[in-house]
Amino acid sequence: MRVISQDAVKVAAADLRAHPQNPRRGNVFGIKQSIQENGFYGSLLVQQRTNFILAGWHRFLAGCELGIAYFPVRYVACDAETALRILLADNRTSDVAGYSDQSLLDVLDQLQESYGAAELVGTGYDPDDVALLVKQLRGEETARVGEYTFPLERQEYCNWLEDLHDAAGFNHKKIFAEILRRMDLDPAS
User: Fold this and answer.
1) pLDDT of the residue at 186
2) Is the pTM of this model over 0.85?
3) Which residues, 6 or more positions from 175, have their beta carbon under 8 angstroms from its beta carbon?
């Protein structure tokens, strides 16, 4: 593999394509929030021969939904097998990464203290995430489904809700909240 463009070049959205074997399902809504708050940063990694996006597909979708017509692209010259390896590695290495929970809490607290809870918009975190992190650091056991946290004794419901959440592919807070209301499940505070 060799990188064709060290510097990103602007490429029209209409010229870029989804890799047909991309198994990743991203959080386009969250990425849109980030782009709206922080701008479109970084670049897409694109296979030169096919114009398939190997890294950044969901950022591309979010950008398109926001009306971005040209994207920063770094091209790579590679065969189909290498393209698949890049596609998978880009997502998997992120999946298996972790956080120092205390360091993460410190950064989130800094944003909230300096700017208020509204400054968490565009980070992918909200005050409920901060509360969950505090509970985890205290050793309190909780179960998480989507954006909601439950006491661990509700784990059987959480498993069912997580399966439903994944199968239905919904991420709209109102739909999920209504399911919780109808099941008489209250997320932990």
Assistant:
1) 57
2) no
3) none
**Domains of the chain: residue spans and CATH:** 2-95 (3.90.1530.10), 101-182 (no CATH)
Structure-block tokens of residue 137? 């650091």
Given pLDDT bands bounded at 50, 70 and 90, which one contains residue 93?
confident
**DSSP per position, 105-139:** HHHHHHHHHHH-GGGGTTTT--HHHHHHHHHHHHT
Give 187's contacts (C-beta < 8 A, 6+ positions apart): 128, 148, 149, 150, 180
Closest CA relative to residue 1, chosen from 53, 77, 55, 52: 77
Residue recorded with tokens 């790579």: 76
Compute φ and ψ for 155, nearest 5 degrees: -55, -40
CA dist list (Å): 24 to 55, 72, 99: 10, 21, 21
Q: Cα–Cα distance between 40 and 62 in angstroms, integer?
A: 10
Look up residue 16 and give its DSSP letter. Answer: -
| pLDDT tens, position by position, 103-153 | 888 888 888 887 766 678 888 888 878 887 887 787 766 666 555 566 555
